[in-house]
Predict the 3D structure of the following.
Amino acid sequence: MSASRFPSANANSAPSKNKSAVRSTKIKSSSEFCGTKYAAVSIVSLMSLVVSGCMGFDTEYGASTGASGQQSVNGFGAFRTLLEQAPDEIPAPDASEAASPREMKTRDLVRLSVREEQNDAIVWVPNEWAPINETSVRKWMERWLAQGNHTLVFIVPDGGSTEEYFHVAAEVATPKQRLEYRRRLAREINERLLTDAGRENIRVKDWFAADALPYRVRLSDRRVCDFDLEPYVEPRSRSAAASGNELSELDWGKGSDDDNDGEQSDAAGDTAVEPETRRFDPLLQETVSVPGGKSSLTTLLRIMDERWGNSRILVVASGGLLTNFAMTSDAAQEIAKTIRDEIRSAASKTDEESSDSALRVSFLASDQFPIPISTVKPGIPKSKGWELMTEMPLSLINMHVAFLGVVLCLMLLPVFGRPRRVRYNRVTHFGNHLSAMATLMRRGGGKEYAQERISQYLRHVRGETSGPWVLPEPVPSPSVASPPNEGAANSGPPDAESPQTVPSAAGDAVVSDAVVASEPTGAMKRDTTVRNSAATETADDPGTPTTDAESSVKES
Protein backbone atom coordinates (compact mmCIF):
# COMPACT_ATOMS: atom_id res chain seq x y z
CA MET A 1 0.00 0.00 0.00
CA SER A 2 1.38 3.36 -1.00
CA ALA A 3 0.22 6.95 -0.58
CA SER A 4 -0.18 9.07 -3.69
CA ARG A 5 -0.91 12.76 -4.14
CA PHE A 6 -3.46 13.97 -6.69
CA PRO A 7 -3.48 17.57 -7.96
CA SER A 8 -6.76 19.41 -8.21
CA ALA A 9 -8.66 18.89 -11.46
CA ASN A 10 -9.21 22.43 -12.71
CA ALA A 11 -9.00 24.22 -16.04
CA ASN A 12 -6.48 26.75 -14.67
CA SER A 13 -4.32 24.26 -12.85
CA ALA A 14 -0.89 25.19 -14.21
CA PRO A 15 0.21 27.08 -11.06
CA SER A 16 -1.09 24.25 -8.88
CA LYS A 17 0.87 21.70 -10.89
CA ASN A 18 4.05 23.72 -10.43
CA LYS A 19 3.32 23.99 -6.73
CA SER A 20 2.77 20.22 -6.53
CA ALA A 21 6.06 19.63 -8.31
CA VAL A 22 7.90 21.89 -5.85
CA ARG A 23 6.16 20.14 -2.93
CA SER A 24 7.13 16.68 -4.21
CA THR A 25 10.74 17.86 -4.68
CA LYS A 26 10.70 19.09 -1.09
CA ILE A 27 9.40 15.75 0.17
CA LYS A 28 12.03 13.75 -1.70
CA SER A 29 14.87 16.02 -0.58
CA SER A 30 13.87 16.01 3.07
CA SER A 31 12.83 12.35 3.34
CA GLU A 32 16.40 11.11 3.79
CA PHE A 33 17.19 13.70 6.44
CA CYS A 34 13.98 13.17 8.40
CA GLY A 35 14.02 9.38 8.07
CA THR A 36 16.55 8.70 10.81
CA LYS A 37 15.18 11.52 12.98
CA TYR A 38 11.58 10.31 13.05
CA ALA A 39 12.66 6.68 13.23
CA ALA A 40 14.44 7.39 16.50
CA VAL A 41 11.44 9.33 17.80
CA SER A 42 9.12 6.49 16.83
CA ILE A 43 11.23 3.87 18.60
CA VAL A 44 11.44 5.96 21.79
CA SER A 45 7.67 6.63 21.77
CA LEU A 46 6.82 2.99 21.16
CA MET A 47 9.15 1.75 23.89
CA SER A 48 7.67 4.26 26.35
CA LEU A 49 4.23 2.87 25.59
CA VAL A 50 5.43 -0.70 26.04
CA VAL A 51 7.24 0.05 29.31
CA SER A 52 4.10 1.70 30.71
CA GLY A 53 2.47 -1.76 30.75
CA CYS A 54 -0.94 -3.03 29.77
CA MET A 55 -2.81 -1.57 32.72
CA GLY A 56 -3.17 2.08 33.60
CA PHE A 57 -2.32 3.70 30.27
CA ASP A 58 -4.65 6.32 28.82
CA THR A 59 -6.85 5.63 25.78
CA GLU A 60 -9.00 8.78 25.79
CA TYR A 61 -9.93 9.91 22.30
CA GLY A 62 -9.92 13.47 21.03
CA ALA A 63 -7.82 15.31 23.64
CA SER A 64 -5.00 17.50 22.35
CA THR A 65 -3.79 19.18 25.55
CA GLY A 66 -2.93 18.07 29.05
CA ALA A 67 -1.90 14.61 30.16
CA SER A 68 -4.50 12.85 28.00
CA GLY A 69 -3.52 14.78 24.90
CA GLN A 70 0.16 13.92 25.28
CA GLN A 71 0.09 10.43 26.83
CA SER A 72 -3.05 8.83 25.39
CA VAL A 73 -2.57 6.59 22.36
CA ASN A 74 -5.74 8.16 20.94
CA GLY A 75 -4.79 11.76 21.71
CA PHE A 76 -3.86 14.45 19.20
CA GLY A 77 -1.07 16.17 21.10
CA ALA A 78 1.60 15.07 18.61
CA PHE A 79 -0.44 16.40 15.69
CA ARG A 80 -0.91 19.72 17.47
CA THR A 81 2.80 19.96 18.21
CA LEU A 82 3.69 19.29 14.57
CA LEU A 83 1.41 22.11 13.43
CA GLU A 84 3.29 24.54 15.67
CA GLN A 85 6.63 23.55 14.17
CA ALA A 86 8.01 25.70 11.37
CA PRO A 87 8.20 23.99 7.97
CA ASP A 88 11.50 23.31 6.22
CA GLU A 89 12.70 26.44 4.46
CA ILE A 90 12.50 26.24 0.66
CA PRO A 91 14.63 28.67 -1.35
CA ALA A 92 12.49 30.86 -3.56
CA PRO A 93 13.29 30.47 -7.27
CA ASP A 94 13.38 34.23 -7.92
CA ALA A 95 15.01 35.35 -4.66
CA SER A 96 18.41 34.81 -3.18
CA GLU A 97 17.14 34.43 0.38
CA ALA A 98 14.53 32.04 1.68
CA ALA A 99 11.22 33.40 2.90
CA SER A 100 10.83 33.04 6.66
CA PRO A 101 7.63 31.12 7.54
CA ARG A 102 5.15 32.67 9.91
CA GLU A 103 4.82 31.28 13.41
CA MET A 104 1.74 29.19 14.17
CA LYS A 105 0.14 29.22 17.62
CA THR A 106 -2.56 26.83 18.80
CA ARG A 107 -5.22 27.23 21.46
CA ASP A 108 -8.39 25.53 22.69
CA LEU A 109 -11.82 26.56 21.43
CA VAL A 110 -14.88 26.02 23.64
CA ARG A 111 -17.39 28.56 22.28
CA LEU A 112 -18.13 29.94 18.83
CA SER A 113 -18.30 33.73 19.07
CA VAL A 114 -17.32 36.88 17.22
CA ARG A 115 -13.89 36.74 18.82
CA GLU A 116 -13.24 33.29 17.35
CA GLU A 117 -13.74 34.66 13.84
CA GLN A 118 -10.17 35.98 14.06
CA ASN A 119 -8.77 32.44 13.88
CA ASP A 120 -6.91 31.51 10.72
CA ALA A 121 -7.77 27.81 11.10
CA ILE A 122 -10.03 25.62 13.23
CA VAL A 123 -9.35 21.92 13.81
CA TRP A 124 -12.64 20.21 14.66
CA VAL A 125 -12.14 16.89 16.49
CA PRO A 126 -15.57 15.42 17.38
CA ASN A 127 -15.68 12.44 19.72
CA GLU A 128 -19.17 11.48 18.51
CA TRP A 129 -21.30 12.64 15.64
CA ALA A 130 -23.42 14.62 15.43
CA PRO A 131 -23.92 17.43 17.95
CA ILE A 132 -27.45 18.52 18.67
CA ASN A 133 -26.99 21.92 17.02
CA GLU A 134 -25.18 20.64 13.94
CA THR A 135 -27.06 22.96 11.59
CA SER A 136 -26.25 26.08 13.63
CA VAL A 137 -22.58 25.13 13.88
CA ARG A 138 -22.35 24.42 10.15
CA LYS A 139 -23.90 27.80 9.30
CA TRP A 140 -21.48 29.56 11.64
CA MET A 141 -18.56 27.77 10.00
CA GLU A 142 -19.75 28.75 6.51
CA ARG A 143 -20.06 32.42 7.52
CA TRP A 144 -16.56 32.25 8.93
CA LEU A 145 -15.21 30.61 5.75
CA ALA A 146 -16.91 33.28 3.63
CA GLN A 147 -14.57 35.88 5.17
CA GLY A 148 -11.72 34.32 3.18
CA ASN A 149 -8.22 32.98 4.01
CA HIS A 150 -9.55 30.47 6.54
CA THR A 151 -9.17 26.69 6.87
CA LEU A 152 -11.43 24.21 8.62
CA VAL A 153 -9.92 20.80 9.39
CA PHE A 154 -12.55 18.15 10.15
CA ILE A 155 -11.38 14.79 11.55
CA VAL A 156 -13.98 12.04 11.17
CA PRO A 157 -14.39 10.24 14.55
CA ASP A 158 -13.56 6.54 14.78
CA GLY A 159 -12.44 3.95 17.35
CA GLY A 160 -8.87 5.24 17.64
CA SER A 161 -5.60 3.31 17.58
CA THR A 162 -5.95 1.15 20.69
CA GLU A 163 -6.26 -2.09 18.73
CA GLU A 164 -3.32 -1.19 16.50
CA TYR A 165 -1.23 -0.41 19.57
CA PHE A 166 -1.79 -3.91 20.97
CA HIS A 167 -1.00 -5.40 17.55
CA VAL A 168 2.45 -3.83 17.62
CA ALA A 169 2.98 -4.28 21.36
CA ALA A 170 2.22 -8.01 21.18
CA GLU A 171 5.02 -8.40 18.62
CA VAL A 172 7.72 -6.47 20.49
CA ALA A 173 6.76 -7.34 24.07
CA THR A 174 8.82 -9.67 26.26
CA PRO A 175 7.71 -13.30 26.50
CA LYS A 176 6.34 -12.69 30.02
CA GLN A 177 4.02 -9.90 28.85
CA ARG A 178 3.23 -11.21 25.39
CA LEU A 179 0.33 -13.36 26.56
CA GLU A 180 -1.27 -10.42 28.37
CA TYR A 181 -0.92 -8.20 25.31
CA ARG A 182 -2.53 -10.85 23.12
CA ARG A 183 -5.40 -11.20 25.56
CA ARG A 184 -5.99 -7.46 25.47
CA LEU A 185 -5.73 -7.52 21.69
CA ALA A 186 -8.43 -10.19 21.44
CA ARG A 187 -10.69 -8.09 23.65
CA GLU A 188 -10.17 -5.02 21.49
CA ILE A 189 -10.88 -7.03 18.34
CA ASN A 190 -14.18 -8.27 19.77
CA GLU A 191 -15.23 -4.76 20.70
CA ARG A 192 -14.24 -3.47 17.28
CA LEU A 193 -16.26 -6.17 15.50
CA LEU A 194 -19.34 -5.09 17.43
CA THR A 195 -18.62 -1.49 16.45
CA ASP A 196 -18.17 -2.40 12.79
CA ALA A 197 -21.60 -4.03 12.73
CA GLY A 198 -23.31 -0.87 13.98
CA ARG A 199 -21.18 1.78 12.25
CA GLU A 200 -23.20 4.28 10.24
CA ASN A 201 -22.30 6.71 7.50
CA ILE A 202 -21.47 10.28 8.45
CA ARG A 203 -23.05 12.86 6.18
CA VAL A 204 -22.50 16.60 6.56
CA LYS A 205 -24.90 18.48 4.34
CA ASP A 206 -23.27 20.33 1.40
CA TRP A 207 -19.81 19.31 2.61
CA PHE A 208 -18.95 15.64 2.32
CA ALA A 209 -20.10 12.08 2.96
CA ALA A 210 -18.02 9.54 4.90
CA ASP A 211 -19.12 6.06 3.87
CA ALA A 212 -18.54 3.44 6.56
CA LEU A 213 -16.38 0.53 5.41
CA PRO A 214 -17.55 -3.05 6.06
CA TYR A 215 -14.61 -3.51 8.40
CA ARG A 216 -11.63 -1.51 9.60
CA VAL A 217 -8.82 -1.29 7.07
CA ARG A 218 -5.28 -1.48 8.40
CA LEU A 219 -3.00 0.76 6.40
CA SER A 220 0.76 0.79 6.40
CA ASP A 221 2.77 2.26 9.27
CA ARG A 222 0.35 1.76 12.20
CA ARG A 223 -2.59 3.58 10.63
CA VAL A 224 -6.23 2.50 10.47
CA CYS A 225 -9.18 3.81 8.47
CA ASP A 226 -12.91 3.25 8.99
CA PHE A 227 -14.42 5.54 6.34
CA ASP A 228 -14.05 6.52 2.71
CA LEU A 229 -14.59 10.16 1.74
CA GLU A 230 -16.86 11.16 -1.12
CA PRO A 231 -18.69 14.33 -2.22
CA TYR A 232 -22.03 14.94 -0.57
CA VAL A 233 -25.01 13.36 -2.35
CA GLU A 234 -28.51 14.68 -1.74
CA PRO A 235 -30.69 11.64 -0.93
CA ARG A 236 -33.75 11.12 -3.10
CA SER A 237 -37.12 11.85 -1.54
CA ARG A 238 -39.72 9.18 -0.88
CA SER A 239 -42.02 10.58 -3.55
CA ALA A 240 -39.33 10.12 -6.19
CA ALA A 241 -38.73 6.58 -5.01
CA ALA A 242 -42.46 5.82 -5.13
CA SER A 243 -42.79 7.20 -8.65
CA GLY A 244 -39.85 5.06 -9.73
CA ASN A 245 -41.53 1.96 -8.34
CA GLU A 246 -44.76 2.72 -10.22
CA LEU A 247 -42.90 3.13 -13.49
CA SER A 248 -41.06 -0.14 -12.97
CA GLU A 249 -44.38 -1.95 -12.42
CA LEU A 250 -45.88 -0.50 -15.58
CA ASP A 251 -42.87 -1.41 -17.70
CA TRP A 252 -42.46 -4.89 -16.23
CA GLY A 253 -42.76 -6.78 -19.56
CA LYS A 254 -40.51 -4.64 -21.76
CA GLY A 255 -37.50 -6.91 -21.49
CA SER A 256 -34.00 -6.79 -20.12
CA ASP A 257 -33.02 -3.79 -22.21
CA ASP A 258 -35.59 -1.66 -20.50
CA ASP A 259 -34.39 -2.99 -17.16
CA ASN A 260 -30.84 -1.94 -17.97
CA ASP A 261 -32.10 1.47 -18.97
CA GLY A 262 -33.90 1.71 -15.64
CA GLU A 263 -30.74 0.81 -13.75
CA GLN A 264 -28.82 3.50 -15.61
CA SER A 265 -31.52 6.04 -14.79
CA ASP A 266 -31.35 5.03 -11.11
CA ALA A 267 -27.61 5.42 -11.19
CA ALA A 268 -28.02 8.83 -12.76
CA GLY A 269 -30.46 9.77 -10.02
CA ASP A 270 -27.88 8.90 -7.34
CA THR A 271 -25.20 11.19 -8.74
CA ALA A 272 -23.86 13.88 -6.47
CA VAL A 273 -25.85 17.07 -6.35
CA GLU A 274 -22.93 19.48 -6.24
CA PRO A 275 -23.18 23.25 -6.46
CA GLU A 276 -21.59 24.71 -9.56
CA THR A 277 -19.30 26.84 -7.42
CA ARG A 278 -18.00 23.99 -5.24
CA ARG A 279 -14.98 21.80 -5.96
CA PHE A 280 -13.87 18.53 -4.32
CA ASP A 281 -10.18 17.60 -4.58
CA PRO A 282 -8.80 14.36 -3.07
CA LEU A 283 -5.35 15.30 -1.77
CA LEU A 284 -4.28 11.87 -0.46
CA GLN A 285 -5.48 8.42 -1.42
CA GLU A 286 -4.49 4.90 -0.38
CA THR A 287 -4.47 1.95 -2.78
CA VAL A 288 -6.17 -0.93 -1.01
CA SER A 289 -8.56 -3.77 -1.78
CA VAL A 290 -11.93 -3.04 -0.23
CA PRO A 291 -15.06 -5.17 -0.71
CA GLY A 292 -17.43 -3.53 -3.14
CA GLY A 293 -15.05 -3.01 -6.04
CA LYS A 294 -13.15 -0.04 -4.58
CA SER A 295 -9.40 -0.01 -5.14
CA SER A 296 -8.53 3.23 -3.34
CA LEU A 297 -9.54 5.15 -0.25
CA THR A 298 -9.57 8.93 -0.02
CA THR A 299 -7.94 9.76 3.29
CA LEU A 300 -7.66 13.56 2.85
CA LEU A 301 -10.25 15.61 0.96
CA ARG A 302 -10.23 19.32 0.16
CA ILE A 303 -13.47 21.23 -0.41
CA MET A 304 -13.39 24.73 -1.91
CA ASP A 305 -16.12 27.14 -2.95
CA GLU A 306 -16.02 30.38 -4.89
CA ARG A 307 -18.22 32.00 -2.28
CA TRP A 308 -15.57 31.28 0.36
CA GLY A 309 -12.73 32.96 -1.51
CA ASN A 310 -9.44 31.31 -0.60
CA SER A 311 -10.97 29.41 2.33
CA ARG A 312 -11.18 25.62 2.30
CA ILE A 313 -12.29 22.58 4.26
CA LEU A 314 -9.88 19.68 4.84
CA VAL A 315 -11.52 16.38 5.81
CA VAL A 316 -9.48 13.53 7.35
CA ALA A 317 -11.10 10.14 6.77
CA SER A 318 -10.44 8.74 10.29
CA GLY A 319 -8.99 9.89 13.54
CA GLY A 320 -6.74 6.81 13.57
CA LEU A 321 -4.65 8.48 10.84
CA LEU A 322 -3.46 11.30 13.15
CA THR A 323 -3.49 9.91 16.71
CA ASN A 324 -0.39 9.93 18.89
CA PHE A 325 0.30 6.29 18.10
CA ALA A 326 -0.20 6.84 14.36
CA MET A 327 2.08 9.88 14.43
CA THR A 328 5.03 7.59 15.19
CA SER A 329 4.98 6.66 11.48
CA ASP A 330 6.22 8.73 8.55
CA ALA A 331 2.93 8.39 6.64
CA ALA A 332 0.90 10.03 9.42
CA GLN A 333 3.46 12.82 9.70
CA GLU A 334 3.15 13.36 5.96
CA ILE A 335 -0.62 13.88 6.33
CA ALA A 336 -0.04 16.34 9.18
CA LYS A 337 2.52 18.28 7.11
CA THR A 338 0.10 18.46 4.20
CA ILE A 339 -2.56 19.93 6.48
CA ARG A 340 -0.05 22.43 7.86
CA ASP A 341 0.94 23.54 4.36
CA GLU A 342 -2.70 23.96 3.36
CA ILE A 343 -3.34 26.14 6.40
CA ARG A 344 -0.35 28.34 5.58
CA SER A 345 -1.36 28.53 1.93
CA ALA A 346 -4.90 29.63 2.75
CA ALA A 347 -3.78 32.19 5.35
CA SER A 348 -1.53 34.09 2.92
CA LYS A 349 -1.95 37.81 3.56
CA THR A 350 -1.84 40.72 1.17
CA ASP A 351 1.05 43.13 1.01
CA GLU A 352 -0.87 45.73 2.98
CA GLU A 353 -1.17 43.47 6.04
CA SER A 354 1.69 42.59 8.30
CA SER A 355 3.19 39.15 7.82
CA ASP A 356 4.88 39.16 11.24
CA SER A 357 1.74 38.17 13.13
CA ALA A 358 1.42 34.53 14.12
CA LEU A 359 -1.18 32.24 12.63
CA ARG A 360 -3.97 31.39 15.08
CA VAL A 361 -5.16 27.77 15.04
CA SER A 362 -7.89 26.63 17.47
CA PHE A 363 -8.79 23.05 18.39
CA LEU A 364 -12.50 22.37 18.90
CA ALA A 365 -13.53 19.13 20.68
CA SER A 366 -17.21 18.20 20.69
CA ASP A 367 -19.61 15.35 21.43
CA GLN A 368 -23.35 14.84 21.11
CA PHE A 369 -24.07 17.83 23.36
CA PRO A 370 -24.61 21.22 21.68
CA ILE A 371 -21.64 23.45 20.97
CA PRO A 372 -22.10 26.88 22.61
CA ILE A 373 -22.60 29.69 20.10
CA SER A 374 -22.61 33.36 21.11
CA THR A 375 -24.52 35.61 18.75
CA VAL A 376 -24.44 39.40 18.74
CA LYS A 377 -27.48 41.35 17.62
CA PRO A 378 -26.82 44.06 15.02
CA GLY A 379 -26.85 47.66 16.11
CA ILE A 380 -25.67 49.56 19.14
CA PRO A 381 -25.80 47.43 22.27
CA LYS A 382 -28.34 48.70 24.77
CA SER A 383 -27.79 48.15 28.44
CA LYS A 384 -30.61 46.83 30.57
CA GLY A 385 -31.65 48.14 33.95
CA TRP A 386 -30.61 45.03 35.82
CA GLU A 387 -27.08 45.19 34.38
CA LEU A 388 -26.37 47.95 36.89
CA MET A 389 -26.55 45.36 39.65
CA THR A 390 -23.49 43.62 38.19
CA GLU A 391 -21.27 46.70 38.33
CA MET A 392 -19.09 47.79 41.23
CA PRO A 393 -19.84 48.60 43.99
CA LEU A 394 -23.38 47.22 43.73
CA SER A 395 -22.10 43.80 42.74
CA LEU A 396 -20.14 43.56 46.01
CA ILE A 397 -23.10 44.80 48.05
CA ASN A 398 -25.52 42.41 46.37
CA MET A 399 -23.27 39.50 47.20
CA HIS A 400 -23.39 40.33 50.91
CA VAL A 401 -27.14 40.99 50.79
CA ALA A 402 -27.69 37.62 49.20
CA PHE A 403 -25.60 35.98 51.92
CA LEU A 404 -27.59 37.71 54.65
CA GLY A 405 -30.80 36.62 52.96
CA VAL A 406 -29.67 33.01 53.11
CA VAL A 407 -28.82 33.40 56.79
CA LEU A 408 -32.25 34.93 57.45
CA CYS A 409 -33.98 32.05 55.72
CA LEU A 410 -32.03 29.58 57.84
CA MET A 411 -32.94 31.53 60.97
CA LEU A 412 -36.66 31.43 60.14
CA LEU A 413 -36.56 27.82 59.14
CA PRO A 414 -37.64 26.37 62.58
CA VAL A 415 -40.95 28.33 62.56
CA PHE A 416 -42.02 26.87 59.25
CA GLY A 417 -44.69 24.20 59.33
CA ARG A 418 -48.11 23.80 61.00
CA PRO A 419 -49.16 26.91 63.00
CA ARG A 420 -49.82 26.47 66.69
CA ARG A 421 -52.30 28.28 68.98
CA VAL A 422 -50.61 30.60 71.49
CA ARG A 423 -52.45 31.52 74.73
CA TYR A 424 -51.71 35.06 75.85
CA ASN A 425 -52.13 35.91 79.60
CA ARG A 426 -54.13 39.03 80.56
CA VAL A 427 -53.10 40.64 83.84
CA THR A 428 -56.48 42.33 84.47
CA HIS A 429 -58.50 39.12 84.20
CA PHE A 430 -60.14 38.33 87.54
CA GLY A 431 -59.96 34.64 86.86
CA ASN A 432 -56.18 34.77 87.24
CA HIS A 433 -56.66 36.13 90.77
CA LEU A 434 -59.06 33.34 91.59
CA SER A 435 -56.70 30.74 90.21
CA ALA A 436 -53.82 32.11 92.26
CA MET A 437 -55.90 32.19 95.44
CA ALA A 438 -57.16 28.66 94.81
CA THR A 439 -53.60 27.46 94.34
CA LEU A 440 -52.48 29.03 97.62
CA MET A 441 -55.46 27.67 99.51
CA ARG A 442 -54.97 24.20 98.06
CA ARG A 443 -51.39 24.28 99.23
CA GLY A 444 -52.51 25.37 102.75
CA GLY A 445 -55.25 22.77 102.98
CA GLY A 446 -58.09 25.31 103.52
CA LYS A 447 -60.70 23.63 101.37
CA GLU A 448 -63.51 24.05 103.91
CA TYR A 449 -62.61 27.69 104.53
CA ALA A 450 -62.60 28.37 100.81
CA GLN A 451 -66.01 26.80 100.37
CA GLU A 452 -67.32 28.86 103.27
CA ARG A 453 -65.96 32.11 101.84
CA ILE A 454 -67.40 31.35 98.40
CA SER A 455 -70.77 30.53 99.89
CA GLN A 456 -70.68 33.74 101.91
CA TYR A 457 -69.82 35.77 98.79
CA LEU A 458 -72.64 34.23 96.84
CA ARG A 459 -75.15 34.82 99.65
CA HIS A 460 -74.29 38.37 100.67
CA VAL A 461 -73.00 39.88 97.39
CA ARG A 462 -75.00 38.09 94.72
CA GLY A 463 -77.96 37.21 96.90
CA GLU A 464 -78.05 33.55 95.96
CA THR A 465 -79.67 31.13 98.39
CA SER A 466 -79.15 27.88 96.57
CA GLY A 467 -76.63 26.43 94.22
CA PRO A 468 -73.75 24.01 94.05
CA TRP A 469 -71.44 26.49 95.82
CA VAL A 470 -73.98 27.81 98.36
CA LEU A 471 -73.69 26.01 101.68
CA PRO A 472 -76.69 25.65 103.98
CA GLU A 473 -76.93 28.02 106.91
CA PRO A 474 -75.39 26.57 110.10
CA VAL A 475 -78.09 25.56 112.60
CA PRO A 476 -77.20 26.67 116.18
CA SER A 477 -77.21 24.03 118.89
CA PRO A 478 -80.20 24.09 121.35
CA SER A 479 -79.65 26.00 124.68
CA VAL A 480 -81.67 26.40 127.98
CA ALA A 481 -83.27 29.80 128.61
CA SER A 482 -81.63 31.87 131.32
CA PRO A 483 -83.49 32.17 134.64
CA PRO A 484 -85.43 35.33 135.40
CA ASN A 485 -83.03 36.37 138.15
CA GLU A 486 -80.06 36.30 135.77
CA GLY A 487 -82.03 38.35 133.31
CA ALA A 488 -82.97 40.82 136.01
CA ALA A 489 -79.40 41.07 137.19
CA ASN A 490 -78.31 42.05 133.70
CA SER A 491 -80.79 44.93 133.66
CA GLY A 492 -80.21 47.57 131.14
CA PRO A 493 -81.03 48.39 127.60
CA PRO A 494 -81.13 45.33 125.47
CA ASP A 495 -78.33 44.89 122.95
CA ALA A 496 -79.62 45.56 119.49
CA GLU A 497 -77.04 43.21 117.99
CA SER A 498 -77.77 40.26 120.27
CA PRO A 499 -80.49 38.00 119.04
CA GLN A 500 -83.52 37.26 121.16
CA THR A 501 -84.35 33.74 122.15
CA VAL A 502 -87.89 32.51 121.78
CA PRO A 503 -88.93 29.31 123.49
CA SER A 504 -90.15 26.75 121.10
CA ALA A 505 -92.74 24.10 121.64
CA ALA A 506 -90.08 21.67 122.70
CA GLY A 507 -88.68 24.05 125.27
CA ASP A 508 -85.46 24.79 123.35
CA ALA A 509 -84.18 28.30 122.88
CA VAL A 510 -83.92 29.32 119.18
CA VAL A 511 -82.79 32.50 117.58
CA SER A 512 -85.59 34.59 116.24
CA ASP A 513 -85.11 35.75 112.68
CA ALA A 514 -87.62 38.51 113.17
CA VAL A 515 -85.29 40.44 115.43
CA VAL A 516 -82.50 40.70 112.87
CA ALA A 517 -83.53 42.99 110.08
CA SER A 518 -80.83 41.88 107.70
CA GLU A 519 -78.43 39.03 107.23
CA PRO A 520 -75.53 39.33 109.62
CA THR A 521 -72.05 39.86 108.29
CA GLY A 522 -69.21 37.42 108.82
CA ALA A 523 -67.98 39.08 112.00
CA MET A 524 -71.46 39.33 113.44
CA LYS A 525 -72.12 35.68 112.63
CA ARG A 526 -68.90 34.62 114.33
CA ASP A 527 -69.78 36.66 117.47
CA THR A 528 -73.23 35.12 117.53
CA THR A 529 -71.81 31.65 117.31
CA VAL A 530 -69.44 32.34 120.23
CA ARG A 531 -72.22 33.76 122.35
CA ASN A 532 -74.47 30.80 121.62
CA SER A 533 -71.70 28.44 122.62
CA ALA A 534 -71.20 30.36 125.85
CA ALA A 535 -74.91 30.27 126.55
CA THR A 536 -74.98 26.55 125.95
CA GLU A 537 -72.12 25.96 128.39
CA THR A 538 -73.86 28.11 130.96
CA ALA A 539 -77.08 26.19 130.53
CA ASP A 540 -75.26 22.92 131.00
CA ASP A 541 -73.59 24.11 134.22
CA PRO A 542 -75.83 26.73 135.82
CA GLY A 543 -73.95 26.67 139.14
CA THR A 544 -70.68 27.89 137.65
CA PRO A 545 -70.59 31.63 137.17
CA THR A 546 -68.98 33.02 134.03
CA THR A 547 -66.65 35.93 134.42
CA ASP A 548 -65.86 38.63 131.92
CA ALA A 549 -62.30 37.33 131.43
CA GLU A 550 -63.52 33.90 130.48
CA SER A 551 -66.03 35.45 128.12
CA SER A 552 -63.32 37.46 126.40
CA VAL A 553 -61.13 34.35 126.03
CA LYS A 554 -63.97 32.44 124.53
CA GLU A 555 -64.75 35.24 122.14
CA SER A 556 -61.16 35.36 121.01
The mean pLDDT is 73.
